[in-house]
Design brief:
The chain is of the alpha+beta class and 442 residues long. The chain folds into three domains: 109 residues, Beta-Lactamase (2-Layer Sandwich); 104 residues, PAS domain (Beta-Lactamase); 183 residues, Reverse transcriptase/Diguanylate cyclase domain (Alpha-Beta Plaits). Helices cover 45% and strands 26% of the residues. β4 and β5 form a beta hairpin. α10 runs antiparallel to α11. It binds guanosine-5'-triphosphate (GTP). Guanosine-5'-triphosphate (GTP) binds next to β11, α9 and α10. It comes from Rugamonas brunnea. GO terms for molecular function: catalytic activity.
Amino acid sequence: MGRQGVVLMVRDSAEIMARAPDWQAYMGRSLPTAPYLAPDAAPRGSFRRVAVLDGVPRLYGYRKLPDYHLTFVAALPLDEILAGTQRQRQATFATMAAMSLLLAAMAWLILRSVRARDRAERALRDANRALSLAGSVFQHTMDAVMVTEIDGTIVSVNPAFTDVTGYEAAEVIGHTPRLLRSGRHDAAFYRALFEQLASTGSWRGEIWNRRKDGQSYLEWIRISLVRDENGKPLRYVSVSNDVTELRAGDEHLRHLAFHDPLTGLPNRALLLDRISQGISVAQRDGRGMGVMFIDLDRFKPINDTLGHDVGDQLLQQVAQRLSQAVRHSDTVARIGGDEFVILLEQVDDGITYVNLAEKLLASLSRPMLLGPHTLEVGASIGIACYPGDGDSAATLMKHADAAMYVSKASGRGAYHFYHPGMTAQSVQRTAAEPGPAERAAE
Ligand SMILES: Nc1nc2c(ncn2[C@@H]2O[C@H](COP(=O)(O)OP(=O)(O)OP(=O)(O)O)[C@@H](O)[C@H]2O)c(=O)[nH]1
């Protein structure tokens, strides 16, 4: 290659990437005016010029490698070309060719390692990003997360877990989830849970647990088995939400749907359901049951003279007195206005109804103290019994109402058992003025 021959690898950015000889002295230096870097430069060519960096006039040959954004350049000093013999020139070109090959191989190796490094860095960056995303979700999710070993030892919990349970991470790590048990589930419950977890790798459902302060709470929980890359069980991850308030809200709504808001007694819908259930049980057991329809006497004047609020308080007192007069297993319902119904189950003899009806009439006719007022009302009662007076909730209600109407008609403050002749009277009354009792029974 002679004393001043050179080979170069130049980036499209004009930076010298490799040079022989004197690699280190020229690495990174820039050749912005090199003709082969001109936008319209041919892919290969030759030219003559005085080198920018060392001032030696040379004859240059180049070839662009667009895929690598590089140009490969070889140059011989003009004086050596002109002075040398043919043999010298051949030797020089042979050396240059060998150098060029060497340089190209080095450049290729460098590029390959640079690309491999770029790829590795990109993969690492992606993995780090995914990890930090997972970490951020773990930290900030509203779901309580608990990670355990396969033997149940807790290895990690998130801040939401601490919010729900009251336990800091340090207080639970190394323990097992038994720490949270509320005692509301039996051993069979946990056995079934673990069996499903072992066979399917997941479990979901509701569990009553206990917070650090001793309070029980209901959580909706999903537990999943996590395996390693070889499929070997590695950890359990449980994600849960505290649904105690949600459940309480549901129960409150359900209570509202089936109870009278003024007295708290079951409403007509719940009563009809209980009568239907009672009929099924009575049928199965061959027992009797009955329905007592109670309508207050002269309640309207109290409302009209003292106001609705006082009327409300009176209805509440009536509800209390009725509830106190019956057995725990009986149902006292308010089905509208001043109408109440008692469902008596497992009663086979008429005397039980007679005794209760008299007890109720006596109880309701006792004066009621409502603030400054001492009020007196009475009641009219109608009784219909299963199976003799009907075998459906609607029929029993209708017949008890008809019997109650007879009590009203007979002067109030009385009770009557239903008998078929009463239906005609009731039909006449219904035609004249449909009452809430009929509506309730339909
Ligand atoms: N305070 C109060 N009054 C109600 C409520 N629902 C219905 N009422 C009233 O209860 C009364 C029921 O009417 P009736 O049964 O015909 O009145 P009554 O004076 O008892 O008539 P008899 O049964 O024939 O003796 C009506 O005045 C309704 O406005 C309620 O929730 N609160």
